[in-house]
Design a protein that fits this description.
single chain; 392 residues; alpha+beta; Ribosomal Protein S5, domain 2; Alpha-Beta Plaits; 2 domains; 6-stranded mixed beta sheet; 4-stranded antiparallel beta sheet; 11 helices; globular; binds alpha-D-galactopyranose
């Protein structure tokens, strides 16, 4: 197999001097509450986006080449941002959006040649977008010599996604990609934006299964859920979801009406589940963690209505494997409407578990399941390759 550095050299006829890596993430619990000021518990994972960079360019332009696009190279001027509308070029709005968010702060992107490599499937709910954004943010900071904090970087990337991609996402993905800690989940409080790493139990592995249903967040459902929650908050006469109890939601059932009642019930119960899950994780209470993940999935399926049949089949298959055999919890992860499920399993049975999920999925959908084992990973980082010689 040709190395990424050799591929870069073959494309650009020069050697890269920087390697930037940004991981994907799964969320263990706390879904659809980051944009409501809730707490969430994501984990950065091994699949990642890698940028190789040579800080030289043709007339100060930023040249982009991605392995996903064969030999096509795109040249972007660091001052003249224009949104890309042709479907196969839309992914460029992520790097362009990040460049624009930095330009708003007076930080211009220097000309350079960039190769983009990814082991993160796009549209699988594993934050490939946030990984690409964060990697570009690090690139801009390195070349301009103007670095910022992980939080500020995440906020700039979030702004890029809001303005340039049209997804009104919360801050969870960008923060987990930026702040991941090996062997830890992160407890992120999205109200005060504080981050606390919580150790993951030894011997537990993460299994990710791609439902095969691509989600497209800009399609409207995500916006609608946010709007529903804003409307419910108004009816509940509160400024923050953190002040609302389940009792108050139940008391206001009639005023909320069926749909908003269900949305509100998801929000307040999910906020409570994150607190309970984080305690269970600290105290190694595996069966409690599994119960909470089940309840979270059911609430996303029935009350928030963001699951789909494929995700439900995978989660049910996870639980039928059995706690006694080493299963420790399953749920959909990320925004839903397709995407992936996350499963916690004991390391000794991980390969049996993957086989079991694959068999159940094949029975239901007559196609192969894309499922993999992964460890937690550290957050996005940059490394100099200056000692590296170009391959001849
Ligand atoms: C997407 C968004 C996040 C979050 C999740 C749902 O991944 O980018 O901000 O809202 O959906 O929890």
């Amino acid at each position: 197999m040709i190395s990424d550095v050799d591929q870069f050299c073959a494309q650009y006829d020069c050697a890269p001097s920087l390697r930037i890596e940004a991981p994907g993430r799964v969320n263990l619990i706390g879904e659809h509450i980051d944009y409501l000021g809730g707490c969430v518990m994501p984990v950065a994972i091994e699949p990642k986006v890698t940028l190789l960079v040579a800080p030289e360019s043709d007339g100060g332009k930023i040249e982009l080449w991605s392995t996903e696009q064969n030999d096509t190279k795109y040249k972007i001027s660091p001052r003249d941002f224009a949104p890309r509308t042709i479907p196969k070029e839309r992914w460029l709005n992520y790097p362009i959006g990040v460049m624009s968010a930095y330009a708003e702060q007076g930080v211009m992107t220097q000309g350079c040649r960039v190769g983009i490599f990814s082991t993160l499937p796009a549209g699988a709910g594993l934050s490939s977008s946030a990984a690409l954004e964060t990697a570009f943010a690090l690139l801009i900071e390195e070349l301009s010599g103007q670095s910022c904090s992980i939080l500020e970087r995440a906020l700039r990337c979030q702004r890029a996604e809001h303005k340039w991609v049209g997804v009104p996402c919360g801050i969870m993905d960008q923060l987990s990609v930026g702040a991941g800690v090996k062997n830890h989940a992160l407890r992120i409080d999205c109200e005060d934006q504080s981050i606390k790493p919580v150790p993951l139990p030894k011997g537990l592995n993460l299994v990710v299964a791609d439902s095969g249903v691509k989600h497209a967040l800009a399609d409207g459902e995500y916006h609608e859920r946010r709007r529903d929650c804003e409307a419910a908050l108004e009816i509940l006469h509160e400024k923050s979801w953190r002040n609302i109890s389940l009792e108050s939601v139940l008391k206001n059932q009639e005023a909320l009406g069926d749909r908003l009642f269900k949305r509100a019930r998801h929000v307040v119960t999910e906020m409570q589940r994150v607190n309970d899950f984080s305690d269970a994780l600290i105290n190694n209470q595996i069966s409690k963690m599994a119960r909470l993940m089940r309840a979270s999935h059911n609430s996303l399926r029935d009350d928030f209505e963001v699951s789909c049949y494929e995700l439900d089949v995978l989660v049910d298959a996870g639980f039928t494997f059995g706690a006694r055999k080493g299963h420790a919890g399953s749920r959909m992860t990320g925004a839903g409407f397709g995407g992936s499920t996350i499963h916690l399993v004991h390391e000794s049975i991980a390969s049996n578990f993957i086989e079991h999920l694959g068999a159940r999925y094949h029975e239901a959908f007559e196609r192969e399941l894309n499922c993999f084992l992964t460890q937690s990973s550290h957050g996005a980082h940059i490394r100099s390759l200056s000692t590296l010689k170009p391959a001849l």
